[in-house]
Amino acid sequence: MPAQSVTNSGPQPCTEYSHQVEGYVVDLDGCAAGGGLPGQWIPEDAPQVDAGEPPAPAEAPEPIVITAEDLKRLPIDPGGLTLQPAVGSVLVNVETIAMSGAGQQQFSTTILGTPVLVRVVPVDYTWDFGDGATLVTTDPGAPYPDHTVAHVYRAVADQRQVTLTTRWAGEFQVDGGAWQPVDGLATTSEVSAPFAVREARTALVADR
What we know:
This protein is mainly β.
């Protein structure tokens, strides 16, 4: 029985990467990268398959920022306003000493599952002594005899009160990162208990 030849009707092997026979060219992507059958022949005028646009990258989450409005909502402790002498009256033409116990404070919260720290520090103090006189300092004051904030009342009065307004600057830290400044300030106010301004009187007494 004579030998029979076998014709392979399947895809032709890809032996060259720029081969053209009777209007057919080799699909280089299929040959080189396995994107189709090895050696597959594709007509020159075959329609191109649109693989579609690549998916858009996911949008980065909005950065967490603490604003001045956030700062103003914090329960900042004013620190306490203290006057010396600490009695119900002070003397005309004698220094009345004032001081604040304000200091740095820190708060923690969680925003969108991320830990956030906020810290505030006092930056200046406005003292209103109730007789029309005001004083702005960056010093919180200190007790006698090292006092740095004081006022002298020049007239008697049945009632006076001191009002202290403190402004606070803030910084915030997101998930242990670098500290970032808050754009804006917060304020706190406190008022002393009312007191009288008295005139000191002298009196002669007999020697004993």
